Amino acid sequence: MFPIVQYQPLRLITQNTPSNMCLKLMFSRPVAFPQTWKSWLSSHSLLGNKNVILMGPPGAGKTTVGRIVGQKLDCPVIDVDDDVLETTWNMSVSEKLQDVGNEQFLEEEGKALLKLSASGSVISLTGSNPLHAASMQHVKRNGLVVYLDVPTAVIMRRLQVMRVDRIVGQGPGVSLRDILQFRKQFYKRWHDIRVLCAGESTAEAVAEKVLDAVKRYQNSELETFISTRASRSGNCKEKDSAKYFSDVVTEGLAPDGGLFVPENGLPKLSAGEWQSLIEATYVERAQVILERCIHPADIPASTLGEIIATAYGENFTCSKIAPVRHLTGNQFLLELFHGPTASFKDFALQIMPHIFAYCVPRSCNYLVLVATSGDTGSAVLDGFSRLRDADKQRIAVMSFFPEDGVSQIQKSQMIGCQKENARSIGVKSDFDFCQTAIKQIFTNSDYTGFLTIEYGTALAAANSINWARLLPQIVYHASAYLDLVNQDIIAFGSPVDVCIPTGNFGNILAALYAKMMGIPIRKCICASNENNVLTDFVRTGTYDLRGRRLIPTSSPAIDILKSSNLERYLHLIASGDGQLVSQLYNQLENQGHFQLQRGLLEKLQRDVVAGWCSEEDCLAAIHSVYSTTGYILDTHTAVAKVVADRLQDRTCPIIISSTAHYSKFAPAILRALRIAEIKQNPLSQLHLLSSYSPLPPVHWGLLETLKRNENEGHQICAADTSVLMSHIEALIQSHF
Predict the structure, then answer these.
(1) Which of the four pLDDT bands, split at 50, 70 and 90, describes residue 273?
(2) What does the longest C-alpha to C-alpha distance in the chain come to?
(3) In a domain, 24, yes or no
(4) Same-domain pairing of 387 and 351
(5) Per-residue confidence band for 240, with pLDDT thresholds at 50, 70 and 90
(6) Suppose 610 and one of 522, 526, 667, 708 were both cysteines; which one would form an S-S bond, judging by CB atoms 3.0 to 4.6 Å apart?
(7) Are strands 608-612 and 654-658 parallel, antiparallel or unpaired?
(8) Which cofactors does this gene product need (predicted)?
């Protein structure tokens, strides 16, 4: 048992001058801590000769937290203010600032830090140290930089209590909030580890989180992945055979045909940590969440930050990236169509190519294969075409889509998104064939071995079977909830339901993962069109493809019968029983059906409910919503709206995922709006829609793509896996 220690309240001590205040967060008396920590730390050599370097804004508590961490580690503690700057200058920090002024102070501060030589110590930086690049490079060479990430609003309150109205670097006409926000870019640049500090966190609690974060940093072997079909006894425990994030990004599909999942599950954020993100931007939320899910040994935090900033930058037409819009009553729309190709697939496929390029070895070329029911094709082609030129030379992508199973605009968009390293092939079959064929190609070791030996090229996947495709989708479900809190629609902790148009089960699985990570989602509503195999499954526990024929609908992205990511969810509710999952999917493959045990069905139904929508009801919903609100739903969102109306009890808000822009499905929208004349040319259809001054406007990126590539063609092939393989080989020969 840990000893119970009573602490005095946290006390703020300030040294005031007219131009500056040096901030120290201190406890009123020494901090006691469990002997268990000391024995663990000494036996595991947490530090070695490395330093733990605490970084953060003024008022973050770096000094006090540093002393507690140093006490726990039984190592020297260096406070840069007291032990470096004032010792070097023989005057107080505030006196130095008055003497030399803001700009020169930063240079003098950096020079003093460059003289610091330490090892095996805890170092508490000043709030302005990270603004000096050379000194930060110096201290970072022999240390782990831990960013104490305290919400700006909390820092502002602390500084107000201490009567601080100016900090180093704050010029005339610049507000305190603005300078704090400005400094964040430097903290993001230098940190190795982030510790989220909720507003009411004590210094002791923050110190514990620092130690946990350092421990995680040094133990990447704890964050391994397994196949959904691996037996418990067969899970890879040997270090040499363990799969890490970089491995699963590269490999895509597990060798046994299963899908990779984190062996120890996803991390859970505390309520306080989630609340610290309420006022954060989408990019800031994404970085925090993905840092927790991707070990820095796979992608360092600063590199991940650069990737996220690139992915969710000027290529999105809305600065909020994934805004939440009130529709009617208790219904809110999560708009996921502001990316370059106008669908929710952009959220994963603007970031996944950069993650992939970073993770894969540079000694080999890679061909990324993807099967698409419409939206994924253009998103993956666009995403991989945005790689750096050097990466495009070693990474190509090929998309297979059902030639007659996507909208004309979707097809035109995929054709228009083709680049030198990105090709699209129409297949004379449906999506299920395309997806099954790609899985067969991946598991054909003779063929993949031939490509590697003959051409030095490996295959990889960009469908949501790849973990790096699924992971970024968790962010927007969490972000939508936080936006409702930020807009005072709900208080944090109040439940919401989500309703998601569902085909391959990836988007709704991301919402279920967000719930696991601590977002208070009550029910996930699975909305299907007339291909309602998932509705039947959720209601009965029977997944039955016998006698089912794929029905082409006006919501083609969910015209799917075999839902790949359902396998990951079954593995989750089966408590990681890969042997059971393997049996179920072998039965589905061989007999066309399987039945869940009653206990598993009950677990599933605690999280998920399901319904479906006819074509007639889908188009009627588009017309009704436009007539009453002026807003145009796309066909997939209309499916979700219809199902939400039927199944949700209106006792809490419901967030409906608006997964695509209506512009992609112009003929169906024009029919729904009862516009008599529908021209065949996709560009003409968009111009016609635009003439109605719709809300939201016609998607500019889609319009520009169609204008540029109106007359381009594409290749079409037969529904034969060997024919697909010949197209793969032809692209490899021509590109690499």
Answers:
(1) very high
(2) 86
(3) no
(4) yes
(5) low
(6) 526
(7) unpaired
(8) pyridoxal 5'-phosphate
Q: DSSP string spanning 516-536?
A: HTT--EEEEEEEE-S--HHHH
Q: Give residue-wise pLDDT tens across range 46-69.
A: 667 899 999 999 999 999 999 999
CATH number at residue 577: 3.40.50.1100
Structural domains of the chain, count = 3
Can you tell me the distance from the alpha carbon of 635 to that of 658, in angstroms, rounded to the nearest whole number? 9
Q: What is the pLDDT of residue 463?
A: 80
Residues in CB range of 418: below 8 A, 6 or more apart: 381, 424, 712, 714
Q: Residue 425 belongs to what H/E stretch?
A: strand 422-427
Distance of CA 603 to the CA centre of its chain: 26
Which two structure tokens, joined as six digits, stand for 681? 């040319």
Calculate ∠ Cα 696-699-704, nearest 5°: 155
Boundary residue ending a domain (195, 220, 245): 220
Predicted confidence at residue 103, as pLDDT, reads 83
Q: Assign residue 265 a region: left if phi > 0, alpha if psi is -120 to 50, beta otherwise?
A: left
Please check whether residues 675 and 727 belong to one and the same domain: no
With respect to residue 649, please indicate whether it lies within any of the assigned structural domains.
Answer: yes
| Shared-domain flag, residues 64 and 152 | yes
Size of the chain in residues = 736
Q: Which domain holds residue 375?
A: 346-466+718-735
Please report, rounded to a whole number, the percentage of residues in the chain having pLDDT higher than 70. Answer: 92
What is the percent of the chain where pLDDT is above 90? 74
Side by side, the strands of the sheet bearing 395-402 are 457-461, 365-371, 395-402, 422-427, 715-717
Q: Determine if residue 396 is left, alpha or beta; phi over 0 gives left, psi from -120 to 50 gives alpha, anything else beta.
A: beta
pLDDT of residue 653: 98
How much is the pLDDT for 42?
Answer: 42
Asked whether the beta carbons of 668 and 696 are under 8 A apart, the reply is no
| 71-75: long-range contacts, CB 8 A cutoff, minimum separation 24 | 71/30, 71/31, 71/33, 72/33, 72/37, 72/38, 72/41, 72/207, 72/211, 73/41, 73/46, 73/47, 73/122, 73/211, 74/38, 74/41, 74/42, 75/47, 75/120, 75/121, 75/122
pLDDT at 161: 87
Confirm if 609 and 523 have CB atoms less than 8 A apart. Answer: yes
In sequence order, what are the beta bridge partners of 656? 333, 499
Q: Residue for token digits 């017309």?
A: 623
Distance, CA of 339 to CA of 380 (rounded, Å): 12
Confidence label for 465 from pLDDT (cuts 50, 70 and 90): confident
Question: Do 511 and 654 have their domain in common?
Answer: yes
CA atoms within 13 A on the CB side of 199: 15
Cβ atoms of 252 and 305 closer than 8 Å: no
Q: Are residues 442 and 518 in the same domain?
A: no
Structure tokens at 316: 């999105």
Q: Are residues 541 and 508 in the same domain?
A: yes
Comparing C-alpha atoms, which of 221, 256, 253, 223 is closest to residue 240? 221
Domain assignment present for residue 573? The answer is yes
Task: Note whether 454 and 535 are same-domain residues.
Answer: no
